Each structure stands twice: as structure tokens, then as C-alpha cells.
Amino acid sequence: MKRIFSGIQPTGEIHIGNYLGAIQNWASLIDDYDCIYCIVDYHAITIDFDPGMMQSRIMETAIINIACGLDPDRCSLFVQSHVPEHTELTWIFNCITPIGELERMTQFKDKSKQHRHNINIGLLDYPALQAADILLYKAHFVPVGEDQFQHVELTREIARKFNRRFGETFPEPQVLPPDTPRILGLDGKKKMSKSMNNYVGLTEPEDEIWEKLRTAVTDEARKRRTDPGNPDRCNIFTIHTGFKSREDLEAIDRDCREAAIGCVDHKRILYDDMMAHLAPIRSRVRELRENVDYVKEALEKSARRCREIAVEVMDEVRAKTGIRPVN
Ligand code: TYM
């Protein structure tokens, strides 16, 4: 079975961008691949964070991922820091990764602007740790949203560099793209993200979700209810494609272009479809929150399994780099 690796940061509420861009895709892969999914706490500390909240955020991230379909009996879901080889391999990669490659990463540039007061080395080195996550398990495929394609490309470059310098060791992992495009935030301009506070959280109260959708930006050229709308320019329409197929949305597409429905009408339909889709997930989240021991045990079991793989690969890396004598 080919192996898959992907990760998510425990930085707060999981939103529909994470869900449509990543987690939904992850859940659909668990029976066809050896899937390893990771809650990347070391990545999460590259921006400001509250130590007192870290453990609850890790647990909540695990709960939501399991509720979205990452059944711990059919895939691995673990916490990055429980397998210390991730940071060890990062150090080796640091020594073969040019600073210039890291400085040109779009995410680093964006986050440096957002967190001007805290541009730390971890933020710059984030992609090297991500490469270590993936290559430590010699993963073949990496299902991620569009914003992460550049990091996976750098991972491939690091794998090639390591192999050239120290001998064939790592496969070059490939991106598995999601069906839905990058989900923009409610402002309709920037990527939906926790840090921009422009998101719809998977487990937010229903009235808050409606309030967020109701005030979200649509096709800005449509000024009045009677103006025809253009779904191709409407973020609400794009979000809707995550919850309904394009064919099922044909009637809305037509009604919108003919001004038969207004933006608020469309938002109400999206709200109903989204809530119907999320209902079983939200109910499973409530159950799992009452059963934290089950979640903790699942995380620990996965970490033990992943560590076995990681220790073996790290031994190989140490031997190849001369850090430890070859047996
Ligand atoms: P994170 O937590 O920022 O994002 C988790 C996943 O959600 C996707 N995503 C989106 N997709 C579509 N539209 C959006 N608005 C949106 N926002 C987030 C991201 O593409 C991602 O797939 N760097 C990774 C975490 C990571 C990782 C790894 C991933 C660490 N190590 C190794 C793969 C392999 C990240 O972006 O997490």
C-alpha cells in the first residue's frame, strides 16, 4: 500500500477551508492508502501562541478530525511532538537547505507581514520541518490545499538534494490536490484562515454561522437585488461547490445570473446545505468531547506505531550522513 502523510496545525478553530481543502479529502483516502495524519504542534508555535491553551487545542483538533472520518482504527492520527525524530530530521535538512529557498516561500512572506513583531527562525524554517514530517515516513502522496503546494515542491527538492549527496533514501512525494479550489475567507479576498479571522468554523453555533454567511462578500459588481449576479466571481458560490456538485448548483447558477434570486436567498440555501452536510460531524464532535480518554488513547497508539517507522528511517539517515557508524 502506498503511504500518505498530511498535517494540520492546532492553532484554533478548524474551518470549512481546512475541511474542503484537506480533511474531507483525507477521510476519503483512508481505506486505499496507508494514511498518516499529524497534528503539528511544533509548527503551531512558530507564531504567537498561548501555552495554557495548547493541550486543549490539540485535543479539539484530534476530535474534529476523527469526527470528520479519520477513524483511528483505519488510519494513524498522532501529535508531531510525540515522535521526536521529526525535529531531529529537520536539523539534518536545515544543513542542506539554502536560506534563500526558505525566504522565497509565499507563506513565510505572508506570515512575516502578519507577525512583524515575531519573525523567528522557526517561521522561516517551517517548510524544513514540514519536509521532515513527510520524508520521515517516506510518504508517496501528500493531500493538501493549494496554499501548501509550494511547501511540497520544496520537500521534493530537499529529498532530491539529500539523495544526491548521501545516496538514494527518500521517494519524491507528490501532491494529491483537493476537488475544491482554495477557499477564500468571508471577505472574498484573502484565503480563509484562522489568523485572518475570516472563517466559518466547523463547530461554531448555528446562529453565528448564519450571521457570518449573511454578511459575507459575494459578487461585488452586483449592487442591487435586481442586478444579474455572476457566480464565477462569487465566493459564496465557490464555497457551495464544496457542499453540492456543480450540476446540482446549475439552477442556482441560472437564477443568480437572471436575478431570480438575491445573494441573501443564495446564502440561505448554502447555509441549509452546509448545516445538513455538517450535522453528523457536529454530533460526533459532541460525543467525542465526552469521551476524551478514547481520543487520547487513539493518539498514543498512533504515535507508537509512527515512532517505529520514524526510528528506523532516522537510523538510516544517521548511517548515511556518517553521524553514526554503519552497523
Ligand atoms: P494548516 O493547519 O494551516 O492547514 C491544514 C490544511 O488545510 C488546508 N487549508 C485550506 N485549503 C483550502 N482553502 C483554505 N482557505 C485553506 N486553509 C487551510 C491547507 O492547505 C492544509 O492542507 N503546513 C501545513 C501543516 C503541515 C503539513 C505537514 C501538511 C505540517 N507538516 C506535512 C502536509 C504534510 C498547514 O498548512 O496546516
Structural shape: globular
Calculate Rg over CA atoms.
21 Å
Number of beta strands: 5
Small-molecule components bound: tryptophanyl-5'AMP
> How many distinct folded domains?
2
Task: Please give the order of strands in the largest beta sheet.
Answer: 1-2-3
Protein structure class: mainly alpha
Instruction: Figure out the total of helices.
Output: 13
- What name is given to the CATH topology of the largest domain? Rossmann fold
What is the helix fraction of residues, given as a range? Answer: 40-55%
Spatial gap, N to C terminus: 29 Å
Order of helices and strands: EHEHHEHHHHEHEHHHHH
What is the CATH class designation of the largest domain? Alpha Beta
Task: Describe the structure in your own words.
By secondary structure, the protein is mainly alpha-helical. It has two domains: 3-182 and 292-321, HUPs (Rossmann fold, 3-Layer(aba) Sandwich); 206-286, Tyrosyl-Transfer RNA Synthetase (Orthogonal Bundle), CATH 1.10.240.10. It is built from 13 helices and five strands. The chain has helices spanning 16-29, 41-44, 51-67, 85-94, 99-103, 106-114, 121-135, 149-166, 206-214, 235-241, 250-257, 263-289, 292-321, and strands at residues 3-8, 34-39, 76-79, 141-143, 174-176. The strands form two sheets. It has a three-stranded parallel β-sheet with strand order 1-2-3. It has a two-stranded parallel sheet with strand order 4-5. β4, α8 (149-166) and β5 (174-176) form a beta-alpha-beta unit. α4 (85-94) packs across α7 (121-135) and α9 runs antiparallel to α12 (263-289). The longest helix is centred in the last third of the chain and has 30 residues, at 292-321. The two termini are 29 Å apart. The mean pLDDT is 96.
